[in-house]
Amino acid sequence: MRLNQLTLVAALAAAFPLFATAADAPAAPAQKPWLDRSLSADKRAELAVKAMTREEKLRWVFGYFGTSFAPKGTTPPKGAIPFSAGFVPGNPRLGLPDLLETDAGLGVATQATPTPRERTALPSGLATASTWDTQMAYAGGAMIGSEARLSGFNVMLAGGVNLMRDPRNGRNFEYAGEDPLLAGTMVGHAVKGIESNHVISTVKHYALNDQETGRNEHDVRIDKAAARMSDLLAMQLALEQSDAGSVMCSYNRVFGTYACENDYLLNEVLKKDWGFKGYVMSDWGATHSTVQAANNGLDRQSGQEFDKSPYFGGALDEAVKNGYVSEARLDDMATRIVRAMFAKGVVDNPVAQDGKIDFAKDGAVSRATAEEGIVLLKNDNKVLPLSKDVKTIAVIGGHADVGVLSGGGSSQVYPVGGNAVPGLEPKVWPGPVVYYPSSPLRHIQALAPNAKVVYDDGTDPARAARVAAQADVALVFATQWIGEANDATSLALPDNQDTLIDNVAGANPRTVVVLETGGPVAMPWVAKIPAVLEAWYPGTSGGEAIARVLFGAVNPSGHLPATFPVSEQQLPRPTLDGDPKQPEQRFTVDYKEGAAIGYKWFDQKGLTPLFPFGHGLSYTTFSYSGLASQVKDGRLHVRFKVTNTGNVAGKDVPQVYVSPLAAKWEAPKRLAGWDKVALQPGESKEVDVVVEPRILGLFDEKSKTWRIAKGKYKLVLAEDAAGKNATSVTVDLPASTLDVRGRQRK
Ligand code: GLC
């Protein structure tokens, strides 16, 4: 090479480490001890990073978008999987693979393209949470993680667990509701399922990214202890139960500093207090600096094309050279990433891109989750289940003749069989609007072969009413599409569906409303409707799941993971902060409710919701007896018997709430535990719920401990947060102090 070429290469090497030449690297060691599987992930990572040049370390901390980025006209690096979320080049010299990243928590997503990957979609995260069944969550995660692997990905950007502080949040459908114990536990099991496929997964969006309006700029203010007992507790529990390889920090600011360069969130809480050994990746477009971000705990810039600058590219190289970021910190960044690769089996189990997916098997997993996640909100005069001998059924609205709705944005999974309703607005981000080709009507007809099933698209309420008037039963499918980067403007169903429902109810007293919504919605017509099902976004096999619940082939057992308010006026912020038309506007969101989210807020304010947290009906009934509590091995046990007092098999979700009779909490009660119990008619089962001790305490930010006050606590066993079927006992607890991870202090 001529001198000026070498100079050019050296200059490029400085500016863009990727261009460093092999001549700079020491010869690869005779053998690669880091590939020795008998060694711990810590040891393997230490050995591998020790063998790296600085350029090779820098390579890991600089992530690319796996798709062309139109605003900058960039194309993804060679090796990225087409229309994928992310790519990080590996290190062939050391035998370390590329990191191939896909979204998200509902299945293998594809960035918008005319030729998307067709994969199996789980129902929404709210549906999985509504099952209250951790094994179901695990199975769903295991399924989508296997499709990620078989599609050639070894990183899955899942684990969304932001709490539902606002039912209008445009990403509620990706998350698990309002309660930190339920959400953290369910998402933790889902992520564990994903990672069982030798795929690194994430927990996201860390932290307090609880609305989409102004998500890139708004600044969250909240009492730190309150954050620790709400949003942060959900993430802490999810990380403990999943051991996720990575955490994705979020777009917003917290306490005035962007989450992805926030020393308190990343270094103090996540890495020091919680002992997180994985790596922090930014969200795509959430990196805002080099030195501050690196020193405050960010380990990897993601989708660098979305950022104003390649902060963790040449600039980081310079910062290390000049000592603004220590060599040790760069080693730590690379070590965390490579350690996760060893720990999750990414290095020892290389992915292939031609895996054969069993879509029938995976569709059945999605259906099982959807069926268990459907919540029977109302069922007066036992309108449901429908008899298969019903003569005429009117199926109205919601494109129920061809499919079921899904939510928009980066989590969008494109269905096998293609979009059942193409061309709906918005066609561009966070669109397109995608309906999965699982037709409720077709499955209804299959379960009632002798019935006359008549479809009306619901666009003309008067015509729909006439159709309903001719039927024995009218099924109105009401939809609410929401998508990332946007919040619902209100809780009202869009597109005049309230009028449609009113009109149909007026024409036929046996009207059932099936909701396919991104979260809680208002129901001004609910008094006139004898039966309401919340099916959420029901996923790949959602039409079949809905039909099977309607006809009783499945006895519904879903329970709400979030409160359904009567109206926005009952919320801490009746009007959402920020202006959707000014996404770059900086504004503050003050979570004055602190940890009192959802039912805790309603209890604190003495408000009555439309449907309470934990609510869900069944086609059978259950009773509770023998409630008792006992402190054993430092844990509070709550024991009771559940009996199926009806005449069909079913599953119940007995919930244990705890209220301090002496101490003062953010709200009168907290969910302290639950179980999911399957019972034949007349069958009883003994249940033993072990209470997560942190739920009994108040977090003290100064001492970083959970303090359980001495005194009496009321334990309420009920079917929902409103105390349905409630029985209670009181227990006397000694004072105790837990460390920041909830462990009894010696
Ligand atoms: C998106 C989302 C994040 C996703 C990432 C990659 O903007 O906030 O959840 O994983 O970018 O698509």
From TrEMBL:
PANTHER family: BETA-GLUCOSIDASE
Organism domain of life: Bacteria
Pfam families: Fn3-like, Glyco_hydro_3, Glyco_hydro_3_C
GO molecular function: hydrolase activity, hydrolyzing O-glycosyl compounds
Fibronectin type III-like domain: residues covered: 652-721
Biological process annotations from GO: carbohydrate metabolic process
SMART domains for this protein: Fn3_like (SM01217)
Signal peptide: 1-22
Keyword Signal assigned: yes
InterPro entries the UniProt entry points to: Cellulose_deg_GH3, Fn3-like, GH, Glyco_hydro_3_C, Glyco_hydro_3_C_sf, Glyco_hydro_3_N, Glyco_hydro_3_N_sf, Ig-like_fold
Keyword Signal recorded: yes
Alphabetically ordered keywords of this record: Hydrolase, Signal
Family designation: Belongs to the glycosyl hydrolase 3 family.
This protein's name: Glycosyl hydrolase
SUPFAM superfamilies reported for this sequence: (Trans)glycosidases, Beta-D-glucan exohydrolase, C-terminal domain
